[in-house]
Write a structure and sequence with these properties.
Layout: E1 10-14, E2 20-24, E3 26-28, E4 34-37, E5 47-51, E6 54-58, H1 61-67, H2 75-88, H3 97-106, E7 114-117, H4 121-131, H5 135-141, H6 151-163, E8 172-178, E9 184-194, E10 199-206, H7 216-231, E11 236-242, H8 246-254, E12 258-269, E13 272-282, H9 283-288
Parallel strand pairs: 10-11
Antiparallel strand pairs: 1-2, 3-4, 5-6, 7-8, 8-9, 9-10, 11-13, 12-13
Helix pairs in contact: 1-2, 4-6
Length: about 290
């Protein structure tokens, strides 16, 4: 493709359908010294990939993120880096925080991967009923004994919740749906909202194991925190997690939550008593990240 910055080691290939590939070529000698091409560090080639199922060495995700820093950034850079960080659980560089704030300010309920939607009992009750049969998810989310619920009972619970709504409400419920196919994959709840003291407890869960590790939970958390601290004007959020749920504890701590209270041996599961860990996040802590 004709470009003003084309070099022998750096050029762009394209086709008549608008597809383009930015080629960066380089060669190292046996001792790791660059002898030709773009001056990338030798250590950056410690990743693995495949081209048409043929294994090749490639730049690792961590280095790809590093290479997207140190220059004037735009929305395209943010899009690429955000997907890399979500896919490989890498902390997004501080230079990109301004894009996160901008996107969250303009898209209150919409992310690139998921959206926060109002629950629809008529269409979602059957799916949520199946969730109550998912013992692994239910036992990680809740401390009380679980039992399977029929779609009719799910609908009845929503009807009762709507009838019992206080003014101002003390609970907000959201469904987490994929942007690609509008599929219901999880839930978000703000419960025990204390408007006088600007606090609430929240629950967030991606139900199916196959939907975890794809960035859905991370984006849902970003939308949830933005909504809580900017739209609801809360000052603190809290979350309660069983000590056995190490994945949830790591996820919350990654997003700034800190351990505040540990109720020792408070929940009995599988012949053993487990601690109930209570974590919290303040608005000032969130905005400073």
């Amino acid at each position: 493709m004709p470009r003003n910055d084309t070099r022998e080691c750096n050029f762009v290939l394209g086709d008549d359908r608008g597809h383009q590939i930015d080629i960066h070529s380089y060669t190292f000698d046996s001792t790791g010294n660059l002898v030709f091409g773009v001056p990338y560090p030798y250590d950056s080639l410690n990743g693995t990939g495949a081209v048409n199922e043929f294994p090749v060495k490639c730049i690792s995700p961590e280095w790809m993120v590093k290479f997207h820093t140190g220059y004037t950034l735009d929305e395209n850079d943010y899009h690429d880096v955000q997907l890399l960080c979500q896919r490989f659980s890498i902390a997004i560089p501080s230079e990109y925080k301004k894009f996160e704030v901008k996107n969250m300010d303009t898209q209150l309920f919409q992310g690139k991967l998921i959206c926060l939607a109002a629950p629809d009992p008529e269409f979602d009750a059957e799916i949520e009923s199946k969730w109550t049969h998912n013992a692994e998810f239910a036992r990680l989310m809740y401390a009380e004994p679980m039992r399977p619920l029929s779609p009719n009972i799910i609908k009845k619970k929503y009807a009762e919740a709507n009838q019992a709504t206080q003014n101002p409400p003390n609970e907000f419920r959201f469904a987490i749906r994929t942007q690609a196919d509008d599929r219901l994959i999880g839930l978000l709840r703000f419960i025990r909202i204390d408007w006088s003291n600007s606090g609430a407890r929240f629950l967030l869960g991606i139900v199916d194991e196959n939907d975890r590790g794809k960035g859905y939970g991370t984006e849902a958390m970003q939308l949830a925190l933005n909504y809580a601290f900017r739209e609801m004007n809360l000052y603190r959020l809290s979350a309660n997690v069983l000590e056995s749920n190490s994945r949830a504890l790591a996820f919350l701590r990654k997003h700034g939550f800190v351990d505040e209270v540990r109720r020792r041996q408070a929940v009995y599961r599988d012949g053993k008593y487990w601690d109930w860990v209570m974590l919290g996040l303040l608005r000032d802590e969130w905005s400073a990240k």
